[in-house]
């Protein structure tokens, strides 16, 4: 089993979304997903461009059998012998760990196939909403988190059913999720709460000795 880079992004955002999209193959499109697809049309044109001494390879396929992850990198830049992966995202700039994990996984694949250029120190995420790049440092903590995410994805992919919906503050992410009509997180949470009440509210069995 090979885990797509984009699946790692979905997993960090919501394990339940990861399961529906990449294990069960359920994909729904809302306005946010469609906007992202349209914005990527100009980026996802494969080819090699050279401008002002910088080489840019668009839509580069990467795969690692060791890490068991693969997918397309939006852009790879080369300048003075250094490789810099670049990922494009629809929204505004922020410290989004799910985006950082996706970019780091791509960097790990590059290092595996080009060990003479390792380690890669950083990459960039370009946010269309902010029209600027954000630098992401490939620190040991992010590298470890990325590899842990790959292992978690492999484990969840073997499960017979999806994880429970997000809880607490994280549940706010459900509002804008394209899979909301399929996932029905509020309904599932309500059923879980009812089942818990039914279980804890059961009368204790009587004592025959009393």
From TrEMBL:
Its cofactor is iron-sulfur cluster; [4Fe-4S] cluster; Mg(2+); Mn(2+). It comes from the Bacteria. One of its GO terms (biological process) is defense response to virus. It is an enzyme of class 3 (hydrolase). Mg(2+) or Mn(2+) required for ssDNA cleavage activity. Keywords: Antiviral defense, Exonuclease, Hydrolase, Iron, Iron-sulfur, Manganese, Metal-binding, Nuclease. InterPro entries: Cas4_exonuclease (IPR051827), CRISPR-assoc_prot_Cas4 (IPR013343), Dna2/Cas4_DUF83 (IPR022765), PDDEXK-like_dom_sf (IPR011604). Its EC number is 3.1.12.1. Residues 7-184 form the DUF83 domain. GO terms for molecular function: exonuclease activity; iron-sulfur cluster binding; metal ion binding. CRISPR (clustered regularly interspaced short palindromic repeat) is an adaptive immune system that provides protection against mobile genetic elements (viruses, transposable elements and conjugative plasmids). CRISPR clusters contain sequences complementary to antecedent mobile elements and target invading nucleic acids. CRISPR clusters are transcribed and processed into CRISPR RNA (crRNA). Belongs to the CRISPR-associated exonuclease Cas4 family. This is CRISPR-associated exonuclease Cas4. It comes from Thermogemmatispora tikiterensis.
């Amino acid at each position: 089993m090979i885990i797509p880079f984009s699946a790692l992004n979905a997993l960090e955002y919501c394990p339940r979304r990861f399961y529906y999209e990449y294990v069960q193959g359920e994909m729904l499109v809302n306005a946010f997903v469609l906007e992202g697809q349209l914005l990527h049309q100009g980026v996802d044109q494969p080819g090699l461009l050279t401008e002002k001494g910088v080489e840019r390879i668009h839509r580069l396929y990467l795969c690692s059998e060791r890490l068991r992850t693969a997918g397309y990198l939006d852009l790879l830049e080369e300048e003075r012998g250094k490789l810099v992966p670049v990922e494009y995202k629809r929204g505004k700039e922020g410290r989004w760990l799910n985006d950082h994990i996706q970019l780091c996984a791509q960097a790990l694949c590059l290092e595996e196939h080009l060990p003479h250029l390792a380690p890669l120190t950083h990459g960039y995420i370009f946010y269309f909403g902010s029209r600027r790049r954000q630098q992401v440092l490939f620190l040991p903590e992010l590298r470890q988190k990325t590899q842990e995410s790959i292992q978690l994805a492999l484990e969840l992919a073997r499960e017979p059913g999806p994880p429970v919906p997000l809880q607490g503050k994280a549940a706010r992410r459900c509002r804008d999720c394209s899979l909301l009509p399929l996932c029905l997180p509020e309904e599932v949470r309500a059923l879980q709460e009812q089942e818990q009440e039914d279980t804890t509210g059961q009368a204790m069995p009587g004592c025959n000795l009393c």
